[in-house]
Design brief:
Layout: H1 2-43, E1 45-46, E2 54-56, H2 59-66, H3 68-101, H4 107-114, H5 122-133, H6 138-145, H7 160-184, H8 188-196, H9 201-212, H10 214-229, H11 233-239, H12 246-254, H13 260-288
Antiparallel strand pairs: 1-2
Membrane topology: Multi-pass membrane protein
Protein name: Spermidine/putrescine ABC transporter
Keywords: Cell membrane, Membrane, Transmembrane, Transmembrane helix, Transport
Length: about 290
């Protein structure tokens, strides 16, 4: 009798799990995997101007590997995305640390302010930075008023630095939240023990807090790095020709060039590079993370 009741509960739990996971599984396997399979299929087709191309060929990948332009733009994209990731983590970690250990009763308000940029359009935030960094923008006007510059500078806009600053600001909330969650799991007794043993605050952060929070830091790095590699909106608005990233080339192939198979091959190449980066981060997580 008891065994039958136990079997009934297990069956109900199994059916509940199936019903709850069905929407996510449908989105993952039907929409995402179908889209990825379609991109992979297109990348192996020749371009004849039709929707799905004609014939199967590896010529698209051969062009990517033989033309130095794509390798150079890919390396530039990785360099800019790496700089954005480092700048975002450097700005986000102190904020997350303050939220986890120092904010007190202001934590809710500060968390609200951190998520406030999500209330505005991504394009509006990029245009705001364009206004700040422009030749007659806010930054040049402020430096002229302070006497730092004698005339407006052209170095702030249409440079890779402008792309790094704009993307770091746009993705900062995505980095703060996972680091904050990781910091919240650290018991206060560990910090008290470090203090009782004579560790100064800076040493406690470097030897205790930072190693334990590394899973959150690595998760934040992935959340920032992966989407910024393929970003094309920000480089086109504030980066200029010297900041063209691989996302801009992909967008051009699907747009003006009307060569969807080659654009799909570029997309698959970017995904492979990102996959290799994720694998490296996973290895680093196992090496430096606190999870067993």
């Amino acid at each position: 009798m008891r065994a039958g009741a136990e079997t009934g509960r297990n069956g109900s739990a199994w059916r509940f799990s199936v019903v709850m996971s069905a929407p996510g599984a449908a989105v993952t396997f039907v929409l995402i995997l179908f889209a990825l399979a379609l991109v992979l299929f297109l990348s192996l087709r020749g371009n004849d101007g039709s929707l799905l191309g004609n014939g199967f060929t590896t010529g698209n990948y051969a062009t990517i590997l033989s033309d130095d332009l794509y390798g150079m733009v890919m390396l530039r994209s990785l360099a800019i995305s790496g700089a954005v990731t480092l700048a975002t983590l450097a700005a986000a970690y102190p904020v997350a640390y303050f939220l986890a250990f120092r904010a007190g009763r202001w934590r809710g308000l500060i968390l609200f302010l951190v998520t406030l940029p999500f209330w505005t359009s991504y394009l509006l935030r990029v245009f705001a930075w364009k206004i700040v960094l422009a030749y007659n923008g806010v930054l040049n006007s402020a430096l002229l008023s302070l006497g730092v510059l004698s005339e407006p500078s052209l170095l702030f806009l249409n440079t890779p630095y402008a792309v790094v600053v704009t993307l770091a600001h746009a993705y900062a909330p995505f980095a703060i939240l996972p680091i904050f969650v990781a910091l919240q799991t650290i018991p206060g007794s560990l910090l008290e023990a470090a203090s009782d043993l004579g560790a100064r605050p800076a040493r406690t952060v470097l030897r205790v807090v930072l190693p334990i929070s590394m899973p959150g830091v690595l998760a934040a790095a992935l959340v920032v790095f992966v989407p910024t590699v393929g970003d094309y909106v920000t480089p086109s608005l504030v980066g200029g020709p010297s900041s063209t990233m691989i996302g801009s080339l992909i967008q051009a192939q699907f747009g003006k060039a009307n060569d969807w198979p080659f654009g799909a091959a570029l997309s698959v190449s970017v995904m492979l590079v990102i996959l290799a980066t994720v694998a490296i981060v996973r290895l680093a997580d196992r090496r430096f993370g606190s999870r067993s």
